Amino acid sequence: MWWWCALSLASTTPEMSDAERAETFAEVLSAAAAGDEDKMTDALLSIVKDDAKAGAHGQAWAMLSTQFARREWKLSAIAAFSKGFDLDPAYGIAQIGSMLDLASEVGEDGMIGKVLSENPDLPVPNELTNRVRAMAVRWLLRQGDYGPALAIAEGGQFEQPGFGDLEMLRGVVLSQQERFTDAVAPLLTAEALARKQDPPDPEFLERTHLNVARAFYASGDFGRAIEFYAKVPRTSDSWLEAQFERAWSHFRGQDTNGALAMLHNHQAPFFQERFDPEADLLRAYSLFLMCKFGQASAEMEGFQQRWQPVIDTIDALSDQSGSDALNAVRAFREGNEQPIPPSALRSFRAEPRMSQALASVDRATKELAQTEDAGELGTVAASLLKPQRDARIETEGARAWRKVRTFRDELYNMLTDIELARVDLLTMEAEMLQRAAATGELETVDNTQRLRKLRKRKGFRPWPWQGEYWADEVGWYVFASRPDCPRSLSRGDEEAP
Asked: What CA–CA distance (Å, rounded) separates 42 from 380?
């Protein structure tokens, strides 16, 4: 039977001879042969409770995981398998594929990811190599262990399933190491493989487009960044985020009209609950660089009025426990009231990791309720599952609260920068007026041909925005404003594509 298929792998349990192992599992085998699942379960529980049989615990826990799975205690099954695999990986090899499937189904890859990261070179079937490595890399990414994560990610097999996912993770690791130029190649490979995937996975393709765009942006290739941000579809939960990041690409490429066009989407009433201070700040800077001092000054004043109260609200909150912070995130995602300003939680609105965590916590709570009246097996399952659930709550809640505090600090810095920009604005405006006083005229730029040029673009039908937002227009705005600077100071005299 499969549980005797052992390999010579690193084990943390005492060695056991074949004869001793056969004797230890004799009752288990007898019950299995007779089809008596309950007796088999009792025999396995007897083994894991007996310290004298510690050499068999890894194998026994791996076998117990199948008993949990049979009762639909899927998280308990993953926990038992992970415990057994950690003790003795040799006896879990045959179950790797089914456990990877189970982890993907319930959205819980942390328990298995941890033990796989410690055994990255398992002699698993070739078709599982990339999946095993991807799960290990995800765990290491969450821990910030980028060196080991990269080493594991580089061991993928191109011809096997899951290579695109592993390549995307390799690109993400390189980006975390700030090796943005190096990150582009694996991310483009992942994007190309995602386009060829049959059946297609739209969510994975969107993630690759975002990651490729971010790598290009960070490496200074703003044109290519804009190209890939534009590939994120309007139907995506990440579309507005992509529009904002694309606005930065236009701004960094000295196309402030393009930046303002992208930011115009954020002002639409359809997104009134998605306040983003950086979008407000970028709008103010863009107007400033176009010498639109009146509008820029109004944006800066409005920024302070909008965001200082948010800082005050966060400062008034006491430190949140993991449970409280996670409950706040859950309430925010469900549209319910909670004490933390929604703008501070915006990154969790559709974050896959948080979605996975909340689903895992809910499933664990449900399973724990099912184990209460399930005798000794239920008690054992609960002893495995409850610490895992509580740790997940604490970890994800603490992460959420750290992000809230980081958001608060970044917001404070933005308010400081706004004040410095206000000084620059007044200085620049004074210099222009002094020049005008000396020359007798205020130098401006003639852009009367701009709209005419826009109308000649093939494939476009432009019409003026008249103060109303329409859903089918969002994402198609073109900002063609005339800079009020002399040509020597002008910025942003390029149109958004």
From this structure: 11
Q: Which helix (H) or strand (E) holds 304?
A: helix 293-316
Buried b / exposed e along 64-98 (16+ C-beta atoms within 10 A): bbbbbbebebbbbbbbbbbbbbbbbbbbbbbbbee
pLDDT of residue 333: 94
Are 244 and 263 within 8 A, CB to CB? Answer: yes
Q: What is the pLDDT of residue 492?
A: 43
CA angle 394, 395, 400 (to 5 degrees): 95
Q: Is 406 helix (H, G, I), strand (E, B) or coil?
A: helix
Terminal CA-to-CA distance of the chain, rounded, Å?
Answer: 64
Distance of CA 267 to the CA centre of its chain: 25
State residue 497's pLDDT score.
Answer: 40
Cα 300 to Cα 161, 214, 379, distances in angstroms:
51, 27, 60
Q: Find out whether 404 and 314 touch, Cβ atoms under 8 Å.
A: yes
Phi-psi region of 492 (alpha: psi -120 to 50; beta: other; left: phi over 0): left
- Find the radius of gyration of the CA atoms of the chain: 29
Picking from 167, 240, 177, 245, the residue whose alpha carbon sits closest to that of residue 204 is 167
Q: Which residues have C-beta within 8 Å of that of residue 336, sequence separation ≥ 6?
A: none
| Paired tokens of 122 | 């398992």
Polymer length in residues for the chain = 497
* Other beta carbons less than 10 A from residue 268's beta carbon: 17
Q: Compute CA distances 416 → 196, 402, 413, 421, whole Å.
A: 48, 21, 5, 9
Q: What is the DSSP letter of 215?
A: H
> For residue 394, what are the contacts with CB-CB under 8 A and spacing of at least 6?
322, 323
Regions of the chain with pLDDT less than 50:
1-9, 442-448, 488-497
**Which value, to the nearest 10 degrees, does the dihedral of the CA atoms of residues 422, 424, 429, 434 take?**
140
| The residue type at 141 | L
Using CA atoms, how far apart are residues 309 and 473, in angstroms rounded to an integer?
Answer: 32
Give the contacts of 18 (CB within 8 A, at least 6 positions apart). Answer: none
DSSP for 242-278?
Answer: HHHHHHHHHHHTT-HHHHHHHHHGGGSGGGTT---HH
DSSP string spanning 348-360?
GSS-HHHHHHHHH
pTM of the full predicted structure?
0.80
Confirm if 119 and 89 have CB atoms less than 8 A apart: yes
Q: Which residues contact residue 487 at a Cβ distance below 8 angstroms, ignoring those fewer than 6 apart?
A: 443, 445
